[in-house]
Give the backbone structure.
Amino acid sequence: MATELTVGDKAPEFSIPDENGKMVSLKSFKGKQVVLYFYPKDDTPGCTKEACGFRDSNTRIQKTGAAVLGVSLDGPESHRKFISKFNLPFSLLCDENASVSKSYGVYKEKNMYGKKYWGIERSTFVVDGAGLLKAVFRKVKVDGHVDEVLAALK
């Protein structure tokens, strides 16, 4: 198992498709901060609230020179519907084989109603322009999270 990523570590590189099948890689954002947020599932209550929080603060986030990228295990069609339904102004990346989630250490065994399954633990990474982790938020609580991220971007 990979060691837990911490502030100052190099952010794991990736190249995975967005909602339109266009490949997105971390290195294409060199020189820009990236808010990389991992969430369990499109169009579920907590994930919708989190995505809408980033949507509503997108202008403030962009003013810091940062880009927002959401990552889940959902496929492109699910992502397109989610973006369209909630008017999300950023890309959602399709980590269908969980390779990126695993490289960031957020693909975990979870337990819901006594059933164990593997999925994404809600987490956010702020990557600086040099590709290093500037902030790491694990087991994110949606309420107030965007404010924490904005504070980290300053």
Summary: The chain has a mean pLDDT of 95. Strands lie at 15-17, 23-25, 33-38, 66-72, 91-94, 107-112, 115-120, 123-127, 133-137. The helical segments are 45-56, 58-63, 76-86, 99-103, 145-153. The chain is about 30% helix and 30% strand.
